[in-house]
Every structure is written in structure tokens, then in C-alpha cells.
Amino acid sequence: MTATLFTVAGVNRRTGPVELRERLYVEDEAVPALLDRLQAAGLAEAMVLCTCDRVEIWGVGSAPQLGEAAFDVLAESAGLDPRALLPQRFLETGEAALRHAFAVASSLDSEVIGEPQVLGQVKAAHRLARDAGRVGPVLEPILQAAYQAAKRVRTETAIGQRPVSLAAAACQLARDVQGDLSRCRALLIGAGDMGEFLMQQLLSTGLGDAMVVARTARRAESLARRLGCHYALLEELPDRLAEADIVVACQGEGRYMLSADMVEGALRRRRRRPVFLVDLAVPGDIEPAVNRLDDAFLYDLDELEQVALQGRAGREAEAGAAWAILEAELAGFRQRQAEREAVPALVALRAGFEAARQAVLAELPPDDPARPALDRATQLLVNRLLHRPMAELRRMAVTGPGAAEEQAAAESLLRRLFPDVPVDEMPGDTPDDTKDEE
Questions:
Q1: Active-site residue set
Q2: Where are the alpha helices (DSSP H) in 236-311?
């Protein structure tokens, strides 16, 4: 039986710049065709996860070099040469891929830890793939286990409160600077998840108007549609900046999108009406020298945290607790998965012994008065003989490094000792198949 491997392949904020992620971005309507191409490349099940932080394929299959195949399909769909992107790709398989999926769903791999949108984005990608018929018996349990980990992280730690408190702090500071938000216009630079969340919070608290500025019309229009506002392209930023009372920057290109000179020019055009700026990017999008300008009030993530939270130690403790939960959920999932994989050998072993027992009973005369007692006695004997081997097979399936190799060696030995037992051909079990009766 060929092993099925879980793989994550793509580009994320750690490996590639925002320009590349935007180029690779896959709109919802293009996902089914991409999933078809992934299936042809050997991914029996797959989904496409696109956020501001990442464009990734989560898939399973048994083809050699599965991750490379997934990345090639993704790159080629954007008209890019996969070979030129090798230094910028993210590729994990097996255990590392599972941990990554759990961390993403739990918002522990986000630029702003605990951001509330990412779990919804994973679920939306899941729905698209499921509707296209590309989620099956391997990927579905992985995603459900990741959701369970995310639920525990949110309910058992305060990690999810951080983005909410950051947004609340930003909204309060905006009111302090501008007063009545209903008379204000906000400008969102970039399509980052945290920026979108903050803009949603501003709109919900009475913001009068909003505009999104992004590098591509596709991304800008998509985000503006979700927020219910207007959009423009980055080249229009200097003009749009002068119209904004509130600026939220989350482009994250690694260079300053707004210089002190740009903001000073905007302030002159605004006749020195104050502007409140929030820089959510890491590294920052707004030149720190903006803070020295009269009538410009700039806050970055650290400063928002100082307003919203009390001390770094508490945040680190929450992150540590969240990762502990994630590791526990991952260990539990691995154990359940290993037990399921061990079941065919257990079922086959019992079936082979039962067939031998029935063959012995068939040699007795049908009307032999001792037959019922012998039937029960041989059944008990088989159960006693199988108890230790089956317990050991289960143990091998769930214990530490090298367990898979140990289990494979044990199954190979079973084939040699009991050549009539179809270890490789038995289907999955039923609950009664794996009970060790005494």
C-alpha cells in the first residue's frame, strides 16, 4: 500500500515579498480549475489558501515529489517560472506540514498573533475545495483536527483578545484625534488581514467613509467589495493621502510606503487638518520621522500594544500556552491517525485466525454434541492468543520516532509467519473487529 502524505506548498510572508504573493493570489472563481490541475499533478485532495500572509496549497497524495508538483502548478498558473522562485517558496510535508496547518488555523503563524480572520479564511478555502469535490477522507480529518486546535486556543487562552484589543485601542485613539468619526474618511493601504479587521471596526463604530488602496485592481476591488467602500491603485496614493483623516497601512513590502515628505505634502494640502496614522506592517510601512510632523499622529503595533495590553510577559505566556495546546492536539491527532492505519493489520490477523478456527470446527461432525463447547473454547483460545500481538501492533502504531518502521517490520513478519492472512488487502474495521475479548 502506497503511503499518502500531507503537503503544504506555496509562498508566505516569511519566504516571499508581498508583490510575489499578490502575483500568485488565486481568486475564488479560479480555484476549481486550479484544483483540477493539482489533481492531474498527483494531489488526490487539495485546497488553496490565499490570505495577505500566504498563498499555499494544502494537499495530499502519493506521487513522488508531491510538494514540487503543487508549487509548479501554483507558479505556472500565475505565469511564473517555478525554478526562478525556488528560494522564495515554502514547502513542508508530513509532521511539519501538519504543525503548520494547525498553527495557521489557530492564528499562531500570523503577522499579528491571534488575528480573527484567518480561521474564517481557512474554512472558506475548505468550502471551495469541498464544493469542487477535492476534499476526501485524508484532508477532511486534518482540517477538522486543526479547527479543534483553533477552538481550544481561542477558548482556553487570551490570545484571540489581542487583535480585538489592538483594534479597540486604535479606534479610541482615532476618536481622540479626530473626534466624531462619522465626519472622517479612512484610507487603507494594502490588503492585510489585520488592516481589514481594523477598518471593519472603524466602520462599525461610525466611520463616515473609507477607501482601499492596493497594488493590483483585482486585490483592491475584492477587498473594497468586502468592506463596502471605494478603491484605488497604489500609484494614486499621494492624491488619496490628502483626502484621508485616518490612514491604516499594512502593505508590508519591507520599505516605506509613506515618507515624512509625502505626509507633510498631504498636510499642506489639507491645510494642516490633523491626520491619524496606524502602521500595522512589520517591518513598517510609514517612515518613523512622520511622528515629528505637527498634526500627524502615528502609532505602530508596539505603541498600540502599550495602549491595549499590560506588559510583554503576559503576551508571551499566552503564546506559550497556545502552542502547548496546539502540540497536545497535534499529538492526539497523530495517535488517532496511527491507530486507524494499524487497523487493517489487526483486522486481517483476526480474520486469518478465525478462518483457521472455522476450518478446524468444520472437520467435526455437524451433530457432534461437543461442538458448541469446542466452538466457545476455540474462540476463547484465539482471543487469548491474539491479545498480546494485537496490543503490540497498536503500541507500535502510536509510539514515537521509528514507530512506522517498527510497525512495517511487524507486518512483514506476519506475512511470513501467516502467509494466508491478507494483511495488505483487508478493508477498514468495524468497532467489533478490534476488540480483544477475554
A1: 52
A2: 237-241, 260-269, 301-308
Q: How far apart are CA 120 and CA 111, in angstroms?
A: 16
Which burial class, exposed, middle or buried, applies to 250 when counting CB atoms under 10 A from its CB (0-12, 13-18, 19+)?
buried
Q: What is the rounded distance in angstroms from the CA atom of residue 242 to the CA atom of residue 262?
A: 9
Which residue, chain included where needed, has cell 488487502?
425
Q: What per-residue confidence (pLDDT) applies to 367? A: 83
Give the start-to-end residue ranges of the domains of the chain.
5-159, 161-308, 341-434
At residue 388, the pLDDT reads: 80
- Residue ranges of the binding site: 51-54, 110, 115-117, 121, 190-195
Task: Just give the CATH number of 161-308.
Answer: 3.40.50.720
Query: What is the per-residue pLDDT across 114-141, written as a single tens digit (0 to 9) for each?
Result: 877 889 999 999 999 999 999 999 999 9
Binding residues for substrate: 51-54, 110, 115-117, 121
Same fold, 5-159 and 161-308: no
Dihedral, CA of residue 302, residue 306, residue 309 and residue 313, to nearest 10: 70
Binding residues for NADP(+): 190-195
Question: 0.85 exceeded by the pTM?
Answer: no
Query: Residue 66: enclosing H or E segment and its boundaries?
Result: helix 66-77
| Helix or strand holding residue 319 (H, E) | helix 312-362
C-alpha cell at 105: 488555523
Q: Are 129 and 120 in contact (CB under 8 A)?
A: no
Strands 5-12 and 54-61: antiparallel
CA-only gyration radius of the chain, Å: 29
* Burial class, 168, CB count within 10 angstroms (exposed 0-12 / middle 13-18 / buried 19+): middle
Which of 163, 56, 175, 184 minimizes the C-alpha distance to 107? 163
Cβ(76)–Cβ(3) below 8 Å? no
Q: Which residues pair with 212 in a beta bridge?
A: 188, 231
Q: What is the CATH number of domain 5-159?
A: 3.30.460.30
* pLDDT tens-digit series, residues 22-51: 889 998 999 999 999 999 999 999 999 998
Quick check: 100 pLDDT over 60? yes
> What would the pLDDT profile of 48-75 be if each residue is shown by its tens digit?
999 888 999 999 987 668 889 999 999 9
For the purposes of burial, counting CB atoms within 10 Å of the CB of 108, is it exposed (0-12), middle (13-18) or buried (19 or more)? buried
Per-residue pLDDT tens digits for 315-368: 667 788 899 999 999 988 887 776 666 566 667 777 778 888 888 888 888 788
